[in-house]
Amino acid sequence: MAWNDLHDHARLQSMLSTPICLDEAIRTLADCRKALQSDPGRIINIKVGRVGGHTVAKQIHDLCLAYDVPVWCGGMTETEIGRAHNIHLCTLEQFSRPGDTSSSSRYFKRDVIVERLESSDGLMPIPANGAGIGVTVDWDFLDAISTSVETIKA
């Protein structure tokens, strides 16, 4: 089935007792609403980057909460900046399925933040080092590995 074919997913879901998880098909709040109304899957994967940021991710979470549909967050190969965003998102009420937010040391020798987000006994710590997402960018390392810089002025 195509990733965005909600009709065929709904036909398959009606034949299964195992819930289908919708991932790439959920790119907007409207996609989620349509999916929840037509039952192509019974679990939703929310990725902050895929849906366009925290505001939409929270709206999708709240809609799934209203429909009592469990959610989880994916993002295995993100840098620790993306990982920190995902971990904070996963603290919301409807996140009842385990995510795939693992330690970035599995993928990167060194990451672009000062703190290390490492799992222990299957759990990730919630970053809490100051304001924002709770992590500090290692600007010297980021500068050292960057091949180009683009400045966008507001």
How do the helices and strands line up, and which of them pair or pack?
Blueprint: H1 6-15, E1 21-22, H2 29-38, E2 43-46, H3 48-51, H4 54-67, E3 71-73, H5 80-89, H6 139-145
Parallel strand pairs: 1-2, 2-3
Helix pairs in contact: 2-4
Commentary on this structure:
The protein is elongated, with a radius of gyration of 17 Å. Helix 2 links the parallel strand 1 (21-22) and strand 2 (43-46). The chain is mainly alpha-helical and 154 residues long. The mean pLDDT is 92. Helices cover 36% and strands 6% of the residues. The protein has a three-stranded parallel sheet with strand order 1-2-3. It has one domain (6-145): Alpha-Beta Barrel (TIM Barrel).
Question: Keywords for this structure?
Answer:
single chain, 154 residues, mainly alpha, TIM Barrel, 3-stranded parallel sheet, 3 strands
Briefly, what is this?
With 154 residues, this protein is mostly helical. The protein is built from 6 helices and 3 strands; from the N terminus they run H-E-H-E-H-H-E-H-H.
